[in-house]
Amino acid sequence: MITPTTYPTRIEQQDTDFTFRASISTMICSVLNVAGLDANAKGFGVSDLNVDNHTWVLSRLAIELDYLPAKFETFDIETWISSYNRLISTRNFILTNQSGTKFGEATSQWCMLDLKERKAVDLSSLHENYGKYVLGDLNSTIARPKKLAPLTHPTKEHTHQAAYSDIDFNRHVNALRYLDLMLDMVPFENLALSRALRVDLQYVQECYYGDNLTVRYQKEGNVTMFEILRNQTNIAVKCQIEWF
Amino acid sequence: MITPTTYPTRIEQQDTDFTFRASISTMICSVLNVAGLDANAKGFGVSDLNVDNHTWVLSRLAIELDYLPAKFETFDIETWISSYNRLISTRNFILTNQSGTKFGEATSQWCMLDLKERKAVDLSSLHENYGKYVLGDLNSTIARPKKLAPLTHPTKEHTHQAAYSDIDFNRHVNALRYLDLMLDMVPFENLALSRALRVDLQYVQECYYGDNLTVRYQKEGNVTMFEILRNQTNIAVKCQIEWF
Lengths: 244, 244
What we know:
homodimer; 244 residues; alpha+beta; 11-stranded antiparallel β-sheet; globular
């Protein structure tokens, strides 16, 4: 019987920020690493897809955390594919601490891209090998990633030209680098508080080396909203952080 | 008998750049991680020193590589303390690939800092527990890190304000982040070539959140030189890359 797989994770010193806790980027990075490991282990990772010139592309992600784990804390990330249709495969995660308490959940939506045609691949072509790993929602209670609206009255803006250290092996700006650029807009003192939070991320368009990324920031009560414009025109990434 | 310790290392997908090889940052990060692991394992890591409010601070580093390893390549990093005096402890590294061929070497110089007094600690106080781990140069042939001169005629300059994603748990700009900012000045096409190289890094002064980092670039033949000014005045970091 196919069941979710659990990956033990540990917060190393280099994963922490000035609060001696994992940063939000570290936590999302951990979840994405586990997604990659699990897909590889089951034969549909990026290396397997590359044979056909296909790759996974993260479209949306939501993560909810009761707290950010401290330095050297260990926890388990349980992951499985919950559903898929022709365009989107959804992978869920449950994070459990060493006392056996669930302290976080995440859900991610992925498209498959044909690198040659630069077009989405119909996921029904995966049917046989993939379908057996699809387990439904199980113990997952997290709401699916939100569709985020454009900002109405951004109060801060910062422009950064995408450089070598921002791009990944695909020559795109790295998914986590967008997040870093957005978190860099949050006042330092707000990042010092360890609070429960929910992050919604929506990747709309890829950005490349040399592109101008304009990061916009807007705050409404306990919700911080961001968007990144590619070359002053199209929205490339949207993000929202709710602090509880 | 105390001998050098060997740490197996593997280049994961997220460690590679657009050339599908490890980036220079990845290689230096691997070496620094091994330094941390080895010091921890032997009882004089950052966590041990923190008890006395001390920490290790990287002062200079040199690395020589015949090539940058490809994605999923595995190799061994052998490390040991080669010498120390009152101010500086020197740790060396030899990198050996899966065919048993040495393809790289590194050497690093560390000071110990008293975090309360913000002053260097006299390393002779470590004598008893530390001295037995000091093994001399052994098979190391790399020249010690160079003392680098200020740039005479920089041809490019870029200013970046140190943000949340640039700083580490110490509230300083991360040692590798300086390197990224400098490599971001190198023309993209130069980074596409996999060549033997030597990097010399010299950390002169710490930079903090909000500081203006001015990155300067100068090229002379096969040598690329960089320096980072803190708030338009003092040189904080110097670096030189020789491409062979």
